[in-house]
Amino acid sequence: MTHTSKAGTALITGASTGIGATYAERLAHRGYDLILVARDQQRLQQLAQKLQADTGVKADVLAADLTVRADLLKVEQRLRDDAGITLLLNNAGMAIDGTLISADVDRYETMIQLNVVAVHRLAAAAATAFSQRKSGTIINIASVLALAPELFNGTYSATKAFVLNLTQSMQRELSADGVRVQAVLPGATRTEIWERAGTDINAMPAEMLMNVDEMVDAALAGLDLGEVVTIPSLPDIADWQTLQNARMALGPNLSLQHAAARYKQA
């Protein structure tokens, strides 16, 4: 008998650990079959076996390094061709600690490839497939640093600002086709990304660090509420609305025939 899920299949990038693995567990319990994508095939297989045993869902493993073009195109093609996929979690990403002038520019390029190029291509593939089927959900993991570039490495923050802007534009473009798009902006979360970036997580104030389970649960609650942008740690959603309203108020004056008066003073 062929197994089918009423919820469909969720393709999750960066699924071997941290945020991606936690989403995989939560989505499995929501009835989604899974396609788990990451570089570490052994970890993926262990997770897939555990989730299949615990929940009865089908969990496929797709080992891929999204900074390698051939691997990225393989995942992209799966999104375009597999009509059973109903949700994309664009989660794979990396961070680099340090300043612009102190870090290896090649590592920056790798980060941009993973955090921007891969996210963009996979989002575009899912958007095309979902819009044709008039349903589907795309969740893009950004960061609160998209709103606070002064607080961390500027290039990392810029990649997450890209994800936020892309998501907001996608929601406007795709909502008429029945496609949901959400950006999740976590604050500091207890995952392996810190160690990989060369940052000592234990040096950070404990009150700033959220456990990954709580972060993902909040993000999924935001999805259920219909939020386009979810900031798990933000106490009052009105603060986000204030920022959005201020941004929209700039709109009428962002492109005018003449320069502002202050630039014409002698």
Any overview of this molecule?
- This protein has eight helices and seven strands.
- It is of the alpha/beta class and 266 residues long.
- Strands 3-2-1-4-5-6-7 form a seven-stranded parallel β-sheet, sandwiched between helices.
- The longest helix has 29 residues, at 105-133.
- The mean pLDDT is 93.
Number of domains: 1
- Give start-end ranges of low-pLDDT stretches: none
How far do the termini sit from each other?
Answer: 81 Å
Provide the CATH superfamily: NAD(P)-binding Rossmann-like Domain
What fraction, in percent, of the residue positions are helical? 40-55%
Order of strands, widest sheet: 3-2-1-4-5-6-7
CATH class: Alpha Beta
What spatial form do the alpha-carbon principal axes imply?
globular
Tell me the total number of β-strands: 7
What is the H-and-E element order?
A: EHEHEHEHEHEHHEH
Main sheet record: 7 strands, parallel
Summarize the structure.
This protein has 266 residues and is of the alpha/beta class. It has helices at 18-29, 41-55, 69-81, 105-133, 154-174, 193-197, 212-224, 237-250, and strands spanning 9-13, 33-38, 59-63, 85-90, 136-141, 179-184, 229-230. It contains 8 helices and 7 strands.
How do the helices and strands line up, and which of them pair or pack?
Blueprint: E1 9-13, H1 18-29, E2 33-38, H2 41-55, E3 59-63, H3 69-81, E4 85-90, H4 105-133, E5 136-141, H5 154-174, E6 179-184, H6 193-197, H7 212-224, E7 229-230, H8 237-250
Parallel strand pairs: 1-2, 1-4, 2-3, 4-5, 5-6, 6-7
Helix pairs in contact: 1-2, 1-7, 3-4, 4-5
Organism: Herbaspirillum lusitanum
Protein name: SDR family oxidoreductase
InterPro entries: NAD(P)-bd_dom_sf, Sc_DH/Rdtase_CS, SDR_fam
